[in-house]
From TrEMBL:
Signal sequence, start to end: none
Domain of life: Eukaryota
Transmembrane segments: none
Family: Belongs to the class I-like SAM-binding methyltransferase superfamily. RNA methyltransferase RlmE family.
Region (Disordered): 157-176
SUPFAM superfamilies: S-adenosyl-L-methionine-dependent methyltransferases
A Pfam family the protein falls into: FtsJ
Native source organism of the sequence: Lupinus angustifolius (Narrow-leaved blue lupine)
Taxonomic lineage: Eukaryota, Viridiplantae, Streptophyta, Embryophyta, Tracheophyta
Name used for this protein in its record: rRNA methyltransferase 2, mitochondrial
UniProt entry keywords in alphabetical sequence: Methyltransferase, rRNA processing, S-adenosyl-L-methionine, Transferase
Presence of the UniProt keyword rRNA-binding in the record: no
Catalytic residues (positions): K187
Length: 236
């Protein structure tokens, strides 16, 4: 974890070390949480693309005392150890490919198999440096997070090559894993297509908004789509 990218980056990098966060990205969720309060005490939280674990730490901190309950499940294609600082027994991780993970399997991992009250997607493609390609991959990951949240009631984003994969992943359930009234947070790389993801999400939630956190590196095109209050009619 380097501290490059100018003075701002160095500040957040040093703060992360000082406070025991495994990455400076913790402060992105800290700011979003302060402004929008997506995670409430005793929430059940799904963290997609959870490596290296900084968002697991922030999510757990916002669950309240251990006796209140709550749960955080982190999923990443890499194996991620639960950070020992700021996390407790309510935090678990599994290694899986979110693009092919069946919805019914994801729901079975939630408390009482009733889904999650918050879904966080900090998934990001391996950046190639080709702006249009990176933006398209980011949209694919972000749309997948939305489809997992809302289920078959939502439009499915597919590439021609991925028809079979998406069908297999989407056919096992008519409902997503986000509970009614729940919140969804999606990281995207800013582009015209990322704005379209916002338009797709808008009718399903009480409120949608965009935020570029202060801890984002100046050179980054990252932006977060914040979707609050999943509406009942969004599910079949």
């Amino acid at each position: 974890m380097g501290g490059g990218g100018g003075g701002t980056a160095d500040f957040f990098y040093k703060e992360a070390q000082r406070l025991g966060y495994v990455a400076r990205s913790a402060f992105k969720l800290v700011q979003i949480q302060k402004q929008h309060k997506l995670i409430k005490p005793a929430s059940s939280v799904l963290d997609l693309g959870c490596a290296p674990g900084a968002w697991l730490q922030v999510a757990c901190q916002n669950l309240g005392p251990l006796r209140n309950g709550g749960f955080v499940l982190g999923i990443d294609i890499k194996k991620v150890k639960v950070p020992p600082i700021h996390c407790d027994s309510r935090v678990q991780t599994i290694s899986a490919d979110v693009m092919t993970l069946p919805i019914h399997q994801l729901r079975s991992l939630s408390p009482k198999q009733k889904g999650f009250s918050v879904i966080l997607s900090d998934m990001c493609p391996s950046v190639s440096g080709i702006t249009t390609k990176d933006a398209a991959l980011s949209v694919e990951l972000g749309t997948r997070a939305f489809n997992l949240a809302v289920g078959r009631a939502s439009p499915v984003y597919v590439d021609d090559d991925d028809d079979n994969r998406e069908e297999q992943a989407g056919n096992d359930s008519s409902n997503g894993v986000l509970q009614i009234g729940g919140n969804l947070l999606i990281k995207l790389l800013e582009s015209e297509d990322s704005r379209e993801v916002g338009q797709i999400c808008k009718p399903f939630f009480t409120k949608t908004s965009w935020l570029r956190p202060k801890a984002t590196r100046p050179s980054s095109r990252e932006i977060y789509l914040i979707c609050q209050g999943l509406k009942p009619h969004a599910k079949i």
